[in-house]
Design a protein that fits this description.
mainly alpha, 2 helices
């Protein structure tokens, strides 16, 4: 296992904990804003969409890109036992 893979595996639980805390703070903020009225709750929901939603979107897109690169790399390299056209020339 490479150093990069070990680092990613080490950071993963920290990332999950940080996202859980961020979500908890978001729910606490939205419940506090609801006590102030409907307009204040909508404004807080709009702010939280960017403060919580954008980092989550970046993470989801990064994972989707990694999965796509992994599938692309596997499709470009033939499996063992297959003949590679033009390899013996």
């Amino acid at each position: 296992m490479s150093v990069v893979q070990r680092t990613r595996l080490f950071v993963l639980p920290l990332l999950i904990a940080a996202l859980a805390v961020l979500g908890w703070l978001g729910f606490a903020a939205i419940s506090e804003a609801m006590s102030g009225g409907n307009g204040q709750a909508w404004l807080m929901a709009w702010v939280l969409a960017f403060l919580v939603g954008m980092p989550l979107l970046v993470l989801v897109l990064a994972v989707a890109g990694a999965l796509q690169r992994h599938d692309l790399a596997r499709s470009l390299i033939p499996y063992s036992g297959e003949n590679i056209p033009g390899a013996g020339q």
